[in-house]
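Example 259, ligand acetoacetyl-coenzyme A.
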Amino acid sequence: NPAFEHIVVEVRPGHVGLVRLNRPKVLNALNAATLAEIVTAVRAFDADSNVGAIVITGSERAFAAGADIAEMSGKSAADLLADVRLAQWEALRKTSKPLIAAVAGFALGGGHELVMVCDIVIAAENAVFGQPEINLGIIPGAGGTQRLARALGKSLAMEIVLNDRRLSADEALRAGLVSRVVPTERVLDEALSVARQIAARAPVAVRLAKQSVLKAFDTTLEVGLELERHNFYLLFSTEDQKEGMRAFLEKRPPNWKGR
Ligand code: CAA
């Protein structure tokens, strides 16, 4: 797509939207323009009925090495307050379709925060995860402290944020940050395959499933259970629920309509 300078965007077979970060000279550092392009592409896929799941990836050497330090270095607090970045991260968080990260190489700082905004993370054997902001005299600013604490627990989150502890792919797997580790050259194919499988499922159920699981990270158990039950009941108003159960009883594959 010629509209994009820092990313490559395509629809892959099986209704999968693919966003590939493409600033190899700076290890896919997320300057303002790159983040804006990612948000534009993800939003377009989220609105595209031909896309059922979205994969975000980088290169074999780097998923993304963080915010662009050169761009950030001269900024004041007032500049950052007036910046659209916060709204852009919020927009990514509000994506309704599943976001799947295929991570090889460095996923650091804002790059790691981008990984954590994704719903499913597939890691290459060479992946490295971390929040090195402390080395720059700052802290993570795009959700890192909150999502790490929720995903990994206090002690490991503290080591990562306070002392730049980096996790290997296997450590990230054990900590629950990623759900599989695959040989580096396979990481994109693996993520595309998971995305294709999800894109072939009942779309309204997938959407409400994602919404329900995400709720677990930002509310009490009681409120979360209420939302789950609400979504569960809501699905009984869809044709796909009737079709899914009929197909099971008739011993044939379901034919999803997305309504
Ligand atoms: N911003 C801007 N440029 C970056 C960058 C970044 N985050 N990360 C790497 N680059 C550039 C380097 O400056 C270098 O450019 P030159 O070739 O022009 O010198 C090029 O990418 C290649 O990097 P290295 O030569 O450093 O490669 P390496 O293999 O020796 O090291 C690395 C790789 C460990 C990732 C190292 O580049 C590094 O530490 N990068 C910075 C990581 C970091 O601190 N990220 C956090 C940023 S702050 C943030 O993200 C805030 C937030 O929460 C939103």
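Summary: The radius of gyration is 19 Å.
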